[in-house]
Amino acid sequence: MPNWSQHDLHPHMSVYSADDQKLGQVAQAYEDSFLVHKGLFFPKDRYFPYSAIATVEDERIHLLMNADEAKQLEWEKRPDYQHHLDDPVQLMYDRGHGIHDPFDETNPSNP
Questions:
Q1: Among 29, 60, 87, 97, which residue's beta carbon has the most beta carbons within 10 A?
Q2: Right CATH number for 1-78 from 3.40.190.10, 2.30.30.240, 1.10.10.10, 3.30.460.10?
Q3: Could you give the CA distance from residue 102 to residue 111 in angstroms, rounded to a whole number?
Q4: Pairing status of strand 22-29 against strand 14-16
Q5: Separation between Cα atoms, residue 54 and residue 5, nearest integer Å
Q6: Strand, coil or helix: what is 54?
Q7: CA 19 to chain centre
Q8: Alpha helix stretches (DSSP H) within 15-63
């Protein structure tokens, strides 16, 4: 499985679910995730970790999850480990939503 990064994405690339529904467009690529702006499909901006990407080709990003799964995710806040190391609420939020947490000593390999 490829390790996608912010170097593989750029703003305005289209984002599709595994069931080929258009979810939106990339607004910004960060070192740990990318932002898809709110729109018809999402009521709020969503951040997706790069581990959620299945393929990137021809200006299209396909995710590993279907549209319903993507809609149910609560990734409305970008993980920001460097700035909230002492914030247990934010770390619990990150861990509870499948975002990789390099500071999770109990399960460091958790996606």
A1: 29
A2: 2.30.30.240
A3: 10
A4: antiparallel
A5: 12
A6: strand
A7: 17
A8: none
DSSP string, 7-24: TT--TT-EEE-TT--EEE
- φ/ψ region of 98 (left if φ > 0, alpha if ψ in -120 to 50, else beta) reads left
Is residue 13 within 8 Å of 60, Cβ to Cβ? Answer: yes
Q: What residues does CATH 2.30.30.240 cover in the chain?
A: 1-78
Number of neighbouring beta carbons within 10 Å of residue 45:
17
**With a threshold of 0.85, does the pTM exceed it?**
no
